[in-house]
Amino acid sequence: MNTQDLIVVMKTAQLGNISAAAAQLDMQVATASAAIKRVEKQLGFQLFVRSTRSLRLSKQGETYLPICEQALALLDNGKKQVLDNDNEIDGELRLTAPSDFGRNILLPWLDELLDEYPKLALKLILNDHNLDFYRDGVDIALRYGAPEDSSFYGFKICDVPLLLCASTEYLEKQGTPKDHEELSEHQGLFFLIRGSKFDTWKLTKNEQTYKVVLKGRRTSNDADVVKRWCAQGAGISLRSAIDVADQLEQGVVQSILNDYRVECKPLWLICPSKQMINPSVRVLRDKLRMYCQALVEKAERYK
């Protein structure tokens, strides 16, 4: 029986809510729910009595959970004894990340990590296609969006706001749109996502959501190209706060329509299994969280 599944069961019993347990354990609700179902299937009885509004332990669950807690404590103690003797940051980090993010933002952070830990090695694969650990030969992936496969394990790095941005030169020539209707009359700079042009943007104001379809003559599957077009004054682009923070600080671009809210994109560090998580991955996770959150806060200050 998978110990991680048992931890999910214990946390759910403690909090009385699968969503709260998933949040504390840094996983998706679907992943937590699947873990509980696996344990119940292996045991042959239900641990929880479920209703639309509540979740409580069954009679069998009340008997089983204290025994489970003792077993997990013993296993955890054994693991700690082993790790105390083997907690060095070494080995090879095999990581894939989005091309533009990896090239322009992530690279100096990874260099710093390697400087801090001389026994650590790095294999970095930059691409923007669907996640495939085995095709790319990697163990961890940095991706926007929660893992779609419930068998994957991930750490949420942060929520990344999206901002509408344009250069000062473009706004001086074409004017600054005052609302979503005026925005639709401007030139959009579009990113190609899995072969589809991302030219419909959702903006929310006063609880009302608007779908704005822009016209535009420039589309690319490379976010760095879209970034350059925007800085050169070719149009308006929808950019992540992490990607645009430094350009906002330097005055290269401006954030517009800030009274509207655009969706956030969660950034995740994903592993194919819990077993792939080691001290090196945790160090990378902590560094990513620190630097990414700093860039999000910088973008908020300068927008």
TrEMBL record:
CDD domains: PBP2_CrgA_like
Superkingdom of source: Bacteria
Single GO MF descriptor: DNA-binding transcription factor activity
Keyword annotations of the record: DNA-binding, Transcription, Transcription regulation
Keyword check for DNA-binding: yes
Stretches assigned to the HTH lysR-type domain: 1-58
UniProt entry tagged with the keyword tRNA processing: no
Gene3D superfamilies listed in its UniProt record: 3.40.190.290, Winged helix-like DNA-binding domain superfamily/Winged helix DNA-binding domain
PROSITE patterns: HTH_LYSR (PS50931)
Cited InterPro entries: LysR-type_TF_proteobact-type, LysR_HTH_N, LysR_subst-bd, WH-like_DNA-bd_sf, WH_DNA-bd_sf
PANTHER family registered for this protein in UniProt: HTH-TYPE TRANSCRIPTIONAL REGULATOR, HTH-TYPE TRANSCRIPTIONAL REGULATOR SINR-RELATED
Name of the protein in question: LysR family transcriptional regulator
